[in-house]
Design goal:
mainly alpha; 11 helices
Amino acid sequence: MTESDSGTAATLRIAQSPEADALLGRSPLAALAGMLLDQQVPMEWAFTGPYTLAERMGSDDLDAGRIAAYDPDAFTGLFTAKPALHRYPASMAQRVQQLCQFLVAEYDGDASAVWRDAATGGELLKRLNALPGFGKQKAQIFLALLGKQFGVRPKGWREAAGPYGEAGSHRSVADITGPESLAEVRAYKQEAKAAAKKTTKTAKTAKTTKTTAKKTTTTRAAGKSGGTTSEK
C-alpha cells in the first residue's frame, strides 16, 4: 500500500476518476506506472491508465511479477484494445513491462521498496532516475509527488525534486489536488511550452541572421579577391 504520513492510503485527485485515483493512492506500482505514462497525453488519461490496465487484466491491482512475465504481444494487446491506454499504446506497453521487469530484478517486485528506505532526497532521486523510462525530470516530478501527497520525505527531498518540490507551486502532477489545481498546472505547462517555443524561434532567427551575415561577408571578400586577380 502507498501510504501518506498519517498511515492511511493517500487520497489523490489526479486522474479525476474516483476509482482510478483510489488505485493510485493505495498501489505503489500504479502510481509509478501512471507517472511513466504521463507523456504526450493529458494527465488524466495517463493516470487513469493503471486502473484500466488492472481491469483488463482481471484484477483490482497491478502486480509487477505478473506483468514482467506476461507474453509481450498479449500485453501490448491490453494497451491497444479500444479505447487505447495511451496515444502510443504499443511503445508504452513495452515500457511498462520493462519497468516491471526491472522492479522484479532489483526490488523483488515491490515498487514501494524504491523509496521506502531512501535516507536522502538525493538517494531517492538516483533510484527513481535508474528506473526504465524515468529521466531526470520525470524522476524529480515523481519525487515531488511522493513528498507532497504521499508523505515520503527523506532529508533534502524538496531540493532533490528541484523546482517541482517548491511549496505552493503548480508546475506538475505533484501539485494536483482537484479540478482547480489541475487547471492551474495545465495553464503553467501551456505557458512554459509557449515560452520554450518563443525561445527556440528567437534562437533560430538569430542563427539565420548570423549565417546570412557570414555569407554576405564571404561573398564580398570573394568579390574583392576576384577583382584583384582580374587586374593582375
